[in-house]
Amino acid sequence: MEPDAQLVQDCLRGDGPSWEELVRRNARRVFNLCYRFTGNATDADDLSQEVFLRIYKTLPSYKASSGAFPTWLTSVTRNLLVDHYRRTRRDRLTDSIDDENAPQLEEKPSAGRSPDKIAEAGELSAQIQEGLAQLSPELREAVILRDLQGLEYAEIQAVLQVPEGTVKSRINRGRIELAKILGDMGLRPN
Amino acid sequence: MEWNCTLTEDRLSDYLDGTLSGEEAAAFEAHAATCAKCAKLVADVRGLVTQMQKLEPLAAPPMLVTRIVNATIGPQKQSAGWKNVLAWRPAVLQPRFALGLVTVAATILILMYTAGFTPTRWKHADLSPATVLRTANRQAHLTFAKSAKFVNDLRVVYEIQTRLQPETQPQSAPAVPQQNPSPANPQDRSQASPHPGHSQSRTGVMLASLM
């Protein structure tokens, strides 16, 4: 039995320290997924908390036989991120319609430099983050899950609930588009 | 096997993952070797994937775990306080914070020693406000008195030097070259100009007596 599955069983028996350990082990992974998707540390912090609140409530529904805990956790996180994206997209559209001077509707998160990005450890990491923000959500999540979270194709397929061919195609197109965006920004990672 | 730019784009990740068949991989490489555009695309995507896979995950905010635990099962009593303190450790240990802390500590130590507090000789009574005030007052007076004495001593030294200079300069400077323009040995030289050395040694004795 994988270590997380044992912790989950202890949590379901009402063991507080096991829940704390489970959160401690997975908080970084969830936070990184949220941050890479939203590009905003404050949103990522709030969303990570929301993810674990949902995990806490739905933990009894988790079945170890149907998949590894990290895959289930990633799946819950991804669903929340999609909800968040749709919510903020609707807000952005409403704001843009309200504002008569708005030059165009913003479909994607801003790629501008925020203090969060400046504070980020490496310049390359910040530039990749800027490039990711310009990808469509479908391509962005596929690239993040594969290249930044290190998931296998089968795990990504389970998280996204799409056929393997679609997963591969999205990852491939996402990588090519990201490389072109970074090339336009004057960055050529080697 | 026929290969073109569209196939290169479509199968690029398969090539990088090593899942192309031998024949396909050979056709892919043969095309990339002759097409500059595809060669650049392959190099760019390969570099990007390598860099992304090497990126270190960002650290989660220090209080995230505590906030989640508090929001779900409530505050945990056992060693939660220490965990909160230790959660800030990575941020505090950054060079910029560590350097700031060392500078502040050094400043406090210098101020303490100047004010007369030496940690090695501390007693419980030293911490009472009256003692602290008295010690600081005494130290301030002592420092002022030492400074005043030093300035006075300097004034005396300069006064003595000023008085000695009119006596030594007219005698030593023009007289020596006339009496002995080229002394043959060091003995003659020391006899020929006794006054400057003499005046310096007098000043030195006076300075020593003042210190």
Task: Produce a short descriptive summary.
The complex is a heterodimer of chains A (190) and B (211). Chain A is an all-alpha fold and 190 residues long.
Tell me the CATH superfamily of the largest domain in chain A.
RNA polymerase sigma factor, region 2, helix turn helix motif
- Our estimate of the beta-strand percent of chain B is under 5%
Q: Give the N-terminus to C-terminus distance of chain A in angstroms.
A: 40 Å
- Assembly level: heterodimer
The CATH class of the largest domain in chain A is identified as Mainly Alpha
The largest sheet of chain B, given as strand count, sense and whether it forms a barrel, is: none
Count of alpha and pi helical runs of chain A = 9
Return the structural class of chain B: mainly alpha
The rounded distance between the terminal residues' Cα atoms of chain B is 99 Å
Would you give an account of this structure?
The complex is a heterodimer of chains A (190) and B (211). By secondary structure, chain A is an all-alpha fold. Chain A folds into 2 domains: 1-107, Orthogonal Bundle (Rna Polymerase Sigma Factor, Chain: A), CATH 1.10.1740.10; 115-184, Winged helix-like DNA-binding domain superfamily/Winged helix DNA-binding domain (Arc Repressor Mutant, subunit A), CATH 1.10.10. Chain A has 9 helices and no strands. In chain A, helix 1 crosses helix 2. The longest helix of chain A is centred in the middle third of the chain and has 30 residues, at 69-98. Chain B has 211 residues and is mainly α. Helix content of chain B is 76%, strand content 0%. Chain B is built from 11 helices and no strands. Chain B has helices spanning 5-10, 12-17, 22-34, 36-54, 64-72, 80-87, 89-92, 95-114, 129-179, 186-192, 194-210. In chain B, helix 3 packs across helix 4. Chain B is elongated and about 105 Å long. The model of chain B is unreliable at 171-197 (pLDDT under 50). The chains are: A mainly alpha (190), B mainly alpha (211). The interface between A and B is large, with 42 and 33 residues.
